[in-house]
Amino acid sequence: MDHDRYEAFLWGQVLLVGLLAAALALFLSYPELRQPYHLPQLKLVLATVYLLAGSLVAVLSGTRFTVEGRRFDLLLCCGFFVTSMAWLAFNVLPAVAQTSRPTELWASVAGRIFGWALIAAAPFVRGRIERRRFVLGNALVVCVGALIVVWALSDSLGGTLPNLYSRHSTGMPPSLDGALAVNALVFLLSLVGFSNRFRLRGEDLDYWLALGATLMLFSALHFLFTPLVREDDVSQGDFLRLLAYGVLLVGVWRAIRGSEFGRAVAEERARVAREIHDGLAQYLFAVSTHASMLEAGADPQVTIPRLKEAALLAQQEARYAILALSSAAGRAPFDAALRRYVDVLTADGSLEVELSIDPAIELGPDEQIELFKIVQEGLANARKHAGAARAWVVIEERNGERVVQVRDDGAGFDAVGGGAGQGLGNMRERARAIGGAFSLRSAPGAGTALEVVLRG
User: Fold this and answer.
1) Which of 173-191 are b and which e, b meaning 16 or more Cβ less than 10 Å from the residue's Cβ?
2) pLDDT category, 430, cuts 50, 70, 90?
3) Is 109 in contact with 172 (CB distance < 8 Å)?
4) What is the predicted pLDDT for the residue at 168?
5) What residues form DSSP beta bridges with 352?
6) Do 318 and 357 contact (CB within 8 A), yes or no?
7) Per-residue pLDDT tens for 108-163?
């Protein structure tokens, strides 16, 4: 990866660790700061937030796994799923039902250690999985089974476990200290693993996971020095953990958006490759055929015009493919790529296109790809099938919605009677893929107008 980027990451981590270590030193220097706060309602709210945040991270990681099939994402999904279910089963539900028992805190700690052990293992796995949905479903079932085993063991050992909820206790038993220390070591392993993975791969997700693991580590250290003796106590570690979950949510959301964009790019490139095979390759074959005919003594007055026409069509198809690829790869700004496409399309004077793009309109990368192809398909239909002399493309914001409209003065067709072809079906699918509403108006002799409406 880029050395400067990794160096900036290291300095950021050093600064964060320094600040958190200084706060921890202050925390240890003044024993009165280590006393927890008895805030039952706030504790329940925080536990619910941890549950929801972890569940969202699990869902996003699982979504990315179904797209890319990486074992890394599978472990992230399972790990956050386990921690979320531990919060739900051993913290939130008992607090709501007011049936909390000492064994449930042990089950919660054990469940979260198990979940974070899966997360800590994620940076060290490699490879991809083919049967993604099947594997993901079975893995989540196994995770639920593991939590049931954790609960059963805690419940069976309930008589021998220390009563952590005793209101006369002044500190935590050594067994719980040991469990929290193991939890801190798991966070440390996560920090090292994700930091090293970021060094090797430079993926944005690893940066955010390392940052979240750092906050989780210091959260665990705060818990080690807090005499947490009641299930509804709140300490400084809770707020660090809340911040950590926020960081993890941001990182995984950015990763899933990047994954979807990458998938859209890959699909678009595959589609362009098919078009090159079906279009450009055929024209080049025609060029080769007519050249061979000339060599064989064919009449030049008949063959040369056909050869020239095939070469011009091949050149035009190549320009279309280059524009589509540059737009899909994100190298060409949307409006610039679209204007160049219109210039190529209208170069021979057979179609005049008026293009109007609101400079203030904002489009996401996936929206740019799909809208570019919708406009391209609409104008190609106007030129090839409708015999239009003029077309209009308008991209604007209207009543808080982003609107893309393509109109032409061509022959039109009976839209109600099923005159739409495969190209229009593709445009509908592209609009649906970006959450847009697609509509079409056309009639014989009255031209065609298609419109895509996106939420603002």
Assistant:
1) eeebeebbebbbebbbbbb
2) confident
3) no
4) 38
5) 390
6) no
7) 888 999 999 999 999 999 888 888 889 999 999 999 999 998 888 877 765 555 55
Torsion of CA 322, 324, 326, 332, to 10 degrees: 120
Q: Where in the chain is the domain with CATH 1.20.1070?
A: 3-257
Q: What is the DSSP string of 390-426?
A: EEEEEEEEETTEEEEEEEE-S----TTTT---HHHHH
Least Cα distance to 440 among 378, 371, 366 occurs for 378
Q: Position 266: which residue type?
A: A
pLDDT of residue 15: 92
448 forms bridges with which residues in the sheet? 408, 442
The pair of structure tokens assigned to 390 is: 């003029």
- Report which secondary-structure segment, H or E, holds 354: strand 352-357
pTM of the model: 0.58
Q: Are 186 and 164 in contact (CB under 8 A)?
A: no
Please, what is the average pLDDT of the chain?
80
Q: What SS3 class is residue 233?
A: strand
125 phi-psi bin (left φ>0, alpha ψ -120 to 50, beta other): beta
Q: Which residue type sits at 395?
A: I
Q: Report CA torsion sign: 153, 159, 161, 166.
A: positive
Instruction: Select from 3.40.50.11270, 3.60.20.10, 3.30.70.100, 3.30.565.10 the CATH code of 333-456.
Output: 3.30.565.10
Helix (H) or strand (E) holding 397: strand 390-398
Q: Could you tell me which of 299, 290, 204 has the C-alpha nearest to residue 253? A: 204
Helix (H) / strand (E) element for 52: namely helix 40-68
